[in-house]
Amino acid sequence: MANKAYQFRLYPTKEQEELLAKTFGCVRFVYNKMLEERIQMFEKFKDDQESLKHQTFPTPAKYKKEFPWLKEVDSLALANAQLNLQKAFQHFFSGRAGFPKFKNRKAKQSYTTNVVNGNIKLSDGYIKLPKLKWIKLKPHREIPAHHIIKSCTITKTKTGKYYISILTEYEHQPALKEVQTVVGLDFSMSTLYVDSEGKRANYPRFYRKALETLAKEQRKLSRKKKGSNRWHKQRLKVAKLHEKMANQRKDFLHKESHKLAKRYDCVVIEDLNMKGMSQALHFGQGVHDNGWGMFTTFLQYKLAEQGKKLIKIDKWFPSSKTCSCCGRVKESLSLSERTFRCECGFESDRDVNAAINIKHEGMKRLAIV
Ligand SMILES: [Zn+2]
């Protein structure tokens, strides 16, 4: 079994928006209540670990008597709040995270609900959700018929848009495709990648423009008095730009990965440790913003869906310094040398040479040289 999530924009009616706001609020309320009770319990039994072990933790059902308005919202959403709190505590006890925090009004507006007895259905551009009934969505992609919906997470963004992420489960056994076409990709800061056929992904110009605009608007924000009317207005503007850019980038990465997964049976990339790399080279934000990590994730599943392969080769493989024609490895190659020249007479764009080497290395792995 494999999982896949599909995201859609939601268009709730006024009444549905009200109920959604209420649900976000109730989920937060229940989460905080349970956290508060747990903290009290820890305090009470802090010198008596044995008794603590035998305490039962609060459940949302308990609060429904005291706060009857909790019954107006999806009870599965409240049950998930309980699960989330449990997870937060597990992470805390295993040392993976700090002590769970209370959620304030600024926390992410979101809740998750599960499929139980056909309570969630998709039909004709609408999705049926517990308590909300049929809610309109933008069906920009189809969920294959053999996918079974497991849960849905509804989120409201800072700019007031609604999204739903539908998690599905499906039997996954595509026939392995015989590898006939292979491409190597060399990571590129400025364009995303250069491939072994000499093509560049070319990050769209509008994205670079938007990055500049965002930086400008952010500077404006930093000059405004925190909490003032103008500051709030500017903050919304920045949040909108952020959202727009993130969406544009995701679209671009989806398109690029789709193109490659359609055209080739096998894609070879270097296994880069982006975090380490950006720190080491002081690229700062750039490398993360470039979206390489998201891109390779998309590529991986788009290839896998068709029984195709993504090969990651060792990041220490000297892809740049090796001559893709004769195999000689240069002792050194400075970053400023944009053209690769070898004693054997071979001359090529530096990135294309690297991409060809990456492709060859991948083919060695596949043993199809
Ligand atoms: Zn050579």
From TrEMBL:
Residues 165-279 form the Probable transposase IS891/IS1136/IS1341 domain. Pfam families: Cas12f1-like_TNB, HTH_OrfB_IS605, OrfB_IS605. GO terms for biological process: DNA recombination; transposition. Residues 1-44 form the Transposase putative helix-turn-helix domain. Residues 292-358 form the Cas12f1-like TNB domain. InterPro entries: Cas12f1-like_TNB (IPR010095), RNA-guided_DNA_endo/Transpos (IPR051399), Transposase (IPR001959), Transposase_put_HTH (IPR021027). GO terms for molecular function: DNA binding; metal ion binding. The keyword ATP-binding does not apply. Keywords: DNA recombination, DNA-binding, Metal-binding, Transposition, Zinc. PANTHER family: RNA-GUIDED DNA ENDONUCLEASE INSQ-RELATED, TRANSPOSASE. In the C-terminal section; belongs to the transposase 35 family. In the N-terminal section; belongs to the transposase 2 family. This is Transposase, IS605 OrfB family. It comes from Anoxybacillus thermarum.
